[in-house]
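Lab notebook, bench 4. The sequencing result for the construct came back, and we need a structural model before the next group meeting so we can plan mutations. Quick request posted to the team channel:

Model the 3D structure of this chain.
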Amino acid sequence: MEQEKKLPLSLYGLSPEDITELLELPKAFYGKQIYAWLIKGVSSFDEMTNLPKYERERLTQLMPSISSSIVASTDTDESGATKMGIRLHDGAIIECVLLVDKKGRHTACLSSQVGCAMGCTFCRTATMGLLRNLAAEEIIEQYMHLIRVSVKPITHIVYMGMGEPLANIAAVTRSIRFFHQEDGFNISLRRITISTSGVVPGILKLTEQRLPVKLAVSLVVADNKIRDRIMPINKKWDLNELKRALLHYQRLGGKRFTIEYCMLHDTNTDEESAKKLAYYLKNLDAKVNLIPWNPAEDMPWETPSEEEVDRFTHFLDRWNVKYTRRRPRGREINGACGQLAVPINKGLEYDFLDEDDED
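Done. Here's the predicted structure in token form:
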């Protein structure tokens, strides 16, 4: 007996050739037509009007062209940032954000997991725990949903939403390759950023792939004892192991990366913290992004005052640390870094997926 073909959640992430083979289309150009419709954001086979009617009816019965739906959007702040809730095929809900910077560039901030297992104490997503990884098509569909509320083309992508991208690296890199396809969205790899809390094996794997995307590392503090308390991942891969991985990444790829420094009141903003950060950055080609902590419900931290931030930057200047001060985007709608969480998911149970399950 012929084994039943396993269908993906949706067609997003597939090439025209893959679509033709998967759907057993009688003509190869049907696959190209379907691919073109998907890129335009069409979410129903019925709307793909250049396909024969009988094919549209057959495909509608076979599988959905999109697996997720918008459940909450239009939360928009003065900067133009919009937070969106997405319901997945199994009922889980994730959040993604459309960000608009001062230059008017539109960026999609995408989630890679339902929840997160990293346990960072300053991040609301950590309160959810990890429910499961997202498939590549679920990551791509977030971008498609954001397109519908964006008044301009989305030209940049950051994997800084819910979850640890490098704990789901196979699905993340597959989605990146789809976004980069020249006959699709054609987004430059240098306009795509992956953020990590410091998953060393993921950094090494990303290095092996020679994928020239931008890397952002959430450091928070350059002191192992303090980082152990704030970011449990440091107990598994401490600052020394992380730096070795970053040096390897830098040596093989020659790419400058970003150090994300979440500033916590009276915790990592003193002169000693600046000195340790400067020492840690020796031999690393990195720029520091200073991010005042974004308030999140039930989190045991405070946002530093402007005076505290000014004082810390003065210390950094003294130690010749390159940095930028990031202004919060999406904070008023709980869509800024560390603010994404969906409490409704706490009542759901899922099978855990390892990154090796995603080809």
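The CA atoms of residues 68 and 88 lie 5 Å apart.
Will bring this to the meeting.
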